[in-house]
Specification:
heterodimer, A: 6 strands, B: about 230 residues, five-stranded mixed β-sheet, 6 helices, about 20% strand, globular
Chain lengths: ~130, ~230
């Protein structure tokens, strides 16, 4: 059985390490990117089941990445779960994300959202946090 | 980008939002690493993953501490809640005090004459200079510190190294967001300290320039001779 691949996009190296650690313990495969530009390269190479996306990043921010993703037919349906410290769920909705988690969120909450999105690639939404 | 220090004071909501963003990231990794450690057995905690998570937890808490300290001082300066003690401060002495502290820095070249002194509060001068050295030494960039007399009875201290990002003084999100050392409030703090001391902070391609009132008539004391 192939475990779902999750692409984690965040400019903070500790956030990347911690989330990848959390997911790997649960048998997910993970790919990582430090900004939106790196994420665009990774997403076309590997077509992840879910993208965990920070919004405030250098080089290319999360909003720009999401817009660019939605213009690429091969990957435009990959669900995005925004993981942000900006406390503004409206920004996640505005980029077509399927869910929003405000840092710091609980580990089990993250796993619940990733599990739901990777199991069901279409429909529904998943919002939590303030 | 040149000079003008309009600062972030006109956008208080934006500044507080930035502070919240910067604190939430290391707070997240502190909480997650602590929770992951609590889910591990004692044997697992002593392994490489346990050591890595422990290091992450400590690093994250240190980062939060730095951000909280810097933010508290920013707020107290904004509120005028700090009693300042002005005295002649030899710049070279302050610089040596800061460089004697441990830090994750590259090489630092100091070209400051021992006769230069500012009339300022020592604690705040140290905090401002520490902040500027931290920003200039990002990615372990080589740093050069120079000082000289400027117009208006001021001393201009230039800290050059990692180049200032355009707009970094006006908008903290363009400074050093997500700084792994917790120094993303360094520029807002240094700007506030400069203003509180009757000086100014500017940035250009040459580096950060902190201008402070000169201590008139300051005479450097000779260092005591070593015993034979």
């Amino acid at each position: 059985m192939t475990h779902p691949l999750v692409l984690v996009v965040d400019d903070d190296p500790d956030i990347l390490d911690a989330i990848c650690d959390i997911l790997e313990v649960e048998q997910y495969r993970v790919a990582r990117a430090r900004n939106g530009l790196e994420a665009l390269e990774r997403v076309e190479e590997e077509r992840p089941a879910v993208i965990l996306l920070d919004l405030m990043m250098p080089v290319m921010d999360g909003v720009t990445f999401a817009r660019a993703l939605h213009e690429r037919p091969a990957v435009k349906d990959v669900p995005i779960l925004v993981i942000s410290a900006d406390g503004n769920p409206a920004r996640a909705a505005s980029v077509g994300a399927r869910g929003y988690l405000a840092k710091p969120f609980d580990i089990d909450t993250l796993l619940g959202h990733v599990g739901a999105l990777s199991a069901d690639g279409a429909g529904g939404s998943s919002h939590a946090g303030a | 980008m040149d000079g003008a220090d309009s600062g972030d004071g006109s956008n208080r909501a934006g500044f507080l939002g930035f502070v919240a963003h910067e604190v939430r990231n290391p707070l997240s990794t502190a909480l997650w690493s602590a929770e992951l450690l609590s889910r591990m057995s004692a044997e697992q905690r002593s392994g490489s993953r346990g050591e890595r998570l422990s290091a992450m937890c400590l690093r994250s808490i240190a980062r939060v501490r730095q951000l909280v300290e810097d933010h508290f001082l920013c707020e107290r300066l904004d509120a005028g809640g700090i009693l300042l003690r002005f005295e002649p401060i030899p710049l070279r002495e302050v610089i040596e005090t800061i460089l004697a502290r441990p830090g994750d820095r590259g090489p630092i070249d100091v070209r400051v004459d021992t006769s230069l002194a500012v009339n300022a509060d020592r604690t705040l001068v140290e905090r401002a200079l520490d902040a500027l050295v931290a920003v200039a030494s990002a990615d372990k960039a080589a740093v050069r510190i120079e000082a000289g007399e400027a117009s208006g009875g001021r001393i201009a201290l230039t800290v050059a190294g990692h180049a200032p990002a355009p707009g970094a003084l006006e908008d903290p999100t363009k400074g050093s967001p997500s700084d792994a050392r917790g120094r993303s409030l360094a520029l807002p703090l240094a700007r506030r300290i400069a203003a509180a001391l009757g000086g100014a902070l500017a940035a250009s391609e040459a580096g950060y320039v902190l201008s402070l009132p000169e201590a008139e008539g300051y005479i450097a004391r000779p260092k005591p001779a070593a015993h034979p």
